[in-house]
Amino acid sequence: MMNVRHRIAFALFLLLAWLAVAGMFRQRHSEQRSAYLNQSLEMQDLAWRATVRSFEDGLGVYVNEYVRRPEILDLLAKAQVESQRVQARVLLYRKLSPVYQVLRARGVRHLHFHLPHAVSLLRFHTPHQSDDTLLAVRPSVRLAQLHRQTVEGFEVGKVISGFRSVHPLEAGNGELLGSVELGLPFDTLRQAIAELKPDSEFNLILRRHALRHLFDESLGLYGPWAGDPSAWVEEDPRRELPDAPPPMSFTSRRLEARIAEREDIRQALELSEGGAFKLTLGAKAYVAVFTPITDVQRDLAGYLVSYADGRALAEQDVNFFTNLALTTFFVMLAGWALYRLMLSRSRLAQERRQFQAIAESMGEGLYVTDSAGQLTYINPAGAALLERDRDKLLGESPHDSFHPRSSGPDRSDCPLCRSRGPFHGELTFVRSNREPFVVRAASRPLIEGGAVRGMVTVFEDISERKRTEAELLRAKESLEKANERLKRAIAHSNRMAEQARNANEAKSRFLANMSHEIRTPMNGIVGMAELMLGTELDKEQEQYVRTMRACGESLLSIINDILDFSKIEADRLVLAEEDFNMLELVEESADLLTLQIGDKPMEMISYVAPDVPLWLRGDPGRLRQVLLNLGSNAVKFTTRGEVAILVSLAECTDERATVCCEVRDTGVGISAEQREKLFLPFEQGDPSSTRQFGGTGLGLAITRRLLDLMGGTIDFDSAPGKGTIFRCTIPLKSVVSEDNSADSPTLDCSGVPMLVACANVTQRDFLIRRLENQQALIRVAHNSELVLAVAEQARLEGAPLRVVFLDHDLAPPMTVPLAHALRRAGQEPPPAVIVLSRLSRLSVAHKEDEQPFSGVLHKPIRTAKLMEMLEQVLSHRSGLLASKLDEDKKRSEQDVPVEKGRILLAEDNPVNRKLAMTFLSRLGFEAEEVENGRQALELLGKDRFDLVLMDVQMPEMDGMEATRRIRTGQGGDEHMDIPIIALTAHAMHGDRERCLRVGMSDYLAKPIRMAELSDKLQRWIQPS
Amino acid sequence: MKDPAMSHIPEKIRRLRTFLFLAVLLSPSLLFAQQTLTYTPLPMVGVRKVVADSRPMLDFLEESLGIDIELHYEKVNADVVRAFQQGNIDLAEIGPLPYVALREMYPQAQAVLFFVEPDGSTHYTCALVTAFDGPGSMAEVKKIAHIPLASTQQLSTCGPLSTGYLLHKHGIDPQTVSFEILGNHEAVALAVIRDEYPLGGIKTHIARRYLSLGLQVLDETPPMPAFALVVNRKTVEAETIDAITEALLAASRDQRTEWGVARRGFVRARDDDYHSMLRMLQETGRRAVDFLMKPSADGEEQKGGSAADGEEGGRE
What are the percentages of helix, strand and coil residues in chain A, rounded to 5? Predict the structure, then answer.
């Protein structure tokens, strides 16, 4: 491509070319204009001279006819004598006055007689002016008298300017008598020349200097010339004289004003050059011609000026600009064409360079042959592949040098020659050492004007590639064989995987069925064992039976874990999503774990931070399972101390609430070696622990899988002998409800003084937190000795205690005495004493006849119970409450039902039916039994019951369907809201929620234990 | 209603334009520039001389006052008087007799300035002239039975009034004289020189210029007021009259160097200056208007050719 420098050079060339042509046109235009103007000048000069000449000839005739007569000459001779001069002048005037009138009529203005020595004798145009000498001001007179010959020319004179013809006058003896002069005014000549140039307007301008000899009275006839007022004047510019020419036209006056702007014209006039000039008025052109007028001494006196239309000049201008425009157009056109041509050539050259660069640098060989088949070009790579000298190859035929064929000279067997068009294929070339090698060649004919002018061929040595391809082919074949084997192996694997999946599903189905089938007889075994414990047994028998019940429960737990894990592994676990009360869930879990503690000297504690939303949305069953698994582990591996469940809020938005659940224990702890495999299935921290503590080792693995499913995390802190803290975060959905906190158990205890006397630090702290959340004023007693002292101090400080929480474990024997002491300490009213007690240890408390307690709270403390009791205590109903609580506890401890009620038991298994009926009987309930749901519906329709114990899996109509029908009124309208407690061997987690969803009120997993059954019945059967 | 075409002109430009308009309107010089006055020179002078003599003075007035002055030539005094009456003339150079006649008929004519004579006075005399070979004295004249007398114009001061006065002074009854009206003083002088008339009446000062051609002065009248610049108060505003008067009086000698007429300046004219003229009329028993003849048609008054044909003027 053309670079910038070339483009600038080209543009300059074009500009110069245009300037040259334009200059030529301009020169020609200037010459034409000059020629025209010169012609105008010459024509005017010629006309002027001809006019003057004609008038001068006429004046000579007048002199000869009227003046050179004897009587006139006699008068002149008489005038030579001064004393006779006046008389001679008068007579001369009288004689020639008629002649002067004739001459005036013919355009002559001056008739002037002179005496010798150029003294004026008589001016017919001003007769009273005479006797003045004209030597200085009238050279014509002087010359005429001096040379005695006629002198003609323009002179201004003393009176008026004009063209004069001075003739010497002599007497017959040759004596000079003087001279006579005839003069013509300018207008006379103007009229004559105007006949010769009718298209022009004339004016006469005179040098201001030429007026220097005029009489003063004549000066007023002259005015400045508009073209150059300082140097030139004109006669009678207003044309006020009677013989004045017509006034100048408006156009001519404008042209004179334009001349005033032309310095060149003024200079030319000043230099006596005259000339013709182009003038313009608007778009019109005019010609001003100045013909110099000289006096008799050949000095410039003035100019004859003419103004004429310059149409020819205008046409010349039009021609010039037309030619210039056409030239410009053609120069630009030629330039454009030339530019395109140069651009094309530049591109061509660049393409050639590119082609050469490509050809020289490409790895493939390339050669070009002409129409005769001879090499005209071969690139270095081609020569190298052929191992030949490039220069020597040029001019040779490829067929002769490196592509020999065995056939004849027509080369009909050469595919290159046969193709007559583009060719792609493989050929065999030979190197200089005659070694053949295979090339992949591509050839294309070079076609010009429809004829093939040569060929261009690109070739690549593919002999190496051919060898590689052969090897690849062999490798491919072996690969295909291996691939075939692999496919067969994959198919085999797939079949095996399918079989494994089928086996796994079968296993799951088997486990599920086995769960139910094992649980049912186990229910009978455990139940019967529990019944047996209620009979009279010796210590050894009792120990056997307890072991049997423990083994049964352990076996059920193992079965539950295995079933859960199987379900998770089979990806069949689907998380539920429903609203649940977090506080209740945690405290229920703690209650269940308390049962597991048994007689261990340890506390079960739960605490939910007040900022945790009461209601959340998620899978409560699986969350409970997580807490129970972690709690069970904690209880299992803790022999004394405490297990605490703490729930706090990790993060909360309008849509989500992430809760953090910590399960702390003071157990054996976990060593560093055990941490790695802690969450692996069927693994326990210490294999020996399995033997010590039992279990399948699936609990933590299931917990972790459940948390993964819920999007949560789990980790732990632990050290051997220092207990363990499991910490898990569980993302849950917030429940958008305005009354979310409405169910929250709260009580305004602002400013109420209370004492917490608690043995366990954690228990005490969480109780204090709960109370402080209600704005209570808390005092603390760490041991039993401080209780009374603190109470006394409070009284003395003017804030006597109103409530005292007295932990039964602080000093069990001192609980009742301390309570009495507090009541009798003299404080009025005495503080209400609330005893904190584990259920199993309360029996000591109510053996006293007089109860000093306002109430008993079971540990772990349930918040709702705490608030309820505080409300009653603070409203002075402590006595009634105490008696009621005592009565409740007495019933519980003695397994005596608080209130009797009619219970309908639906159970298909006869053993379980019998077991349940025995429990109910022992618990003091009146019960009816049926074998399936249909019978239950029928019986409900006939009789009234207070509660239904409903087995889930029954023939004819299962418990689910029967429950749905009861809720729709098919069991009688009075039973639509009857409590229904599920009894099921479907102990898989999630079964509880399914039962609740169909309308059941509660859930009791088989094997049924009497204590659990008692709790459920007490909960759901309202006292009559 | 506002002109939409003007709405695009900025307010400042409109104000400036209004100011310029008022400035132009109030400028005295530009006020005069709107006027064109008509000046009539002395018809007793040849046309060429009239133009040559009058134009420099008129140019001076035009330049000083910013007015245009046209030169309107009348051939005879009677026509000047009539044109003046008709309001066709604003300014005129008029001799004493035509002025008195004009004033009798047209009081708005007012002589404001006298043209100073060559001798520096504001008076001149008229002479009774003859050729070098004509009557040598008034006594010889008296012998001539019938006297053809070349006269300038009927209403010329040096015309029949003055020549009749001089003849009457020498006991010659003017009734016996045949007054031939030739137009101007030069024509009268040259006609007498050519011996076409034995007597002629012209200004004394002009008669003396023709001494080189043998012209002789037989007698001359008492002094009479010089030619005056007469203004038409009906057609020219008083302010303009004052401006013209003051400008001409203020013209310096240098400014008047190239003037023909009024080269020697002006003197303010008064009506009292015409008493001598009135006395001459009184002595001849004539009224000025008696010399006012009917309108001429191209020099009807003249006998010896029109004043326009005269080569020389007759004023000086």
Answer: 50, 20, 30
- Least Cα distance to B57 among B83, B81, B93 occurs for B93
Distances (CA, A) of A446 to A346, A421, A453, A454: 22, 9, 5, 5
Which ranges of chain B have pLDDT less than 70?
1-34, 44-46, 48, 293-316
Asked if B213 lies within 8 A of A90 by C-beta distance, the reply is yes
Convert A953-1018 into a string of H (helix), E (strand) and C (coil). Answer: CCCCCCHHHHHHHHHCCCCCHHHCCCCEEEEECCCCCCHHHHHHHCCCCEEEECCCCHHHHHHHHH
Question: Are B311 and A127 an interchain contact pair (Cβ–Cβ within 8 Å)?
Answer: yes
Residues from A in contact with B at Cβ < 8 Å: 86-87, 89-90, 93-94, 97, 124-128, 130-131, 216-221, 223, 236, 238, 240-242
Contact B154, B301 (CB under 8 A): yes
Q: Using the beta-carbon criterion (under 8 Å), do A242 and B209 form an inter-chain contact? A: no
Residue pLDDT, tens place only, A161-218: 778 899 999 988 889 999 999 988 777 888 888 888 888 888 888 888 777 767 666 6
Residue type, A527: G
CA B293 – CA B281 distance, rounded (Å): 17
Q: Which residues of A touch B259 (CB under 8 A)?
A: 220
Cα distance between residue A912 and residue A1005, in whole Å: 12
The HSE-up count of residue A14 (CA atoms within 13 Å, CB side) is: 19
Q: What tokens appear for A664 in the block?
A: 């702390």
Tell me whether the omega of the peptide bond preceding residue A1007 falls within 30 degrees of 0, making it cis: yes
Query: Torsions phi, psi of B145, nearest 5?
Result: -70, -50
- Condensed to tens digits (0 to 9), the pLDDT of residues A863-903 reads 888 888 888 888 764 444 444 444 444 444 444 444 568 99
DSSP string, B173-213: -GGGEEEEE-SSHHHHHHHHHTTS-SEEEEEHHHHHHGGGG
The three-state secondary structure class of A922 is helix
CB B109 within 8 A of CB B102: yes
Half-sphere CA count of A114, side-chain side, radius 13 A: 30
* Cβ contact A86:B212 at 8 Å: yes
| CA pair distance B235, B70, nearest whole angstrom | 14
Higher per-residue confidence, B222 vs A355? B222
Rg from Cα positions in chain B? 23
pLDDT one-digit tens code per residue, A559-592: 777 777 777 776 667 787 888 889 988 988 888 8
Whole-prediction pTM value?
0.46
pLDDT tens digits for range B45-71? 667 677 778 888 999 999 999 999 998
* Contact in structure between A157 and A213 (CB atoms under 8 Å): yes
Give the burial class of A2: count Cβ atoms within 10 A of its Cβ; 0-12 exposed, 13-18 middle, 19 or more buried. middle
- Which residues, other chains included, contact A712 with Cβ-Cβ below 8 Å and sequence gap of 6+? A728, A729, A730, A731
- Distance (Å) from the alpha carbon of B253 to chain A's nearest alpha carbon: 14
Q: How far apart are CA A80 and CA A757, in angstroms?
A: 180
Report chain A's terminal Cα–Cα distance, integer Å. 111
pLDDT score recorded for residue A328: 85
Q: How far apart are CA A732 and CA A665, in angstroms?
A: 25
Task: Identify whether the C-beta of residue A524 lies closer than 8 Å to the C-beta of residue A912.
Answer: yes
At A439-484, the pLDDT tens digits run 888 888 888 888 888 888 899 888 888 888 889 999 999 999 999 9
Q: Is B195 left (phi over 0), alpha (psi -120 to 50) or beta?
A: left
A 10 A CB-CB count for B270 gives 11
User: What's the length of chain A?
Assistant: 1024
B160 to chain A, closest Cα gap in Å: 24
CB A304 within 8 A of CB A200: no
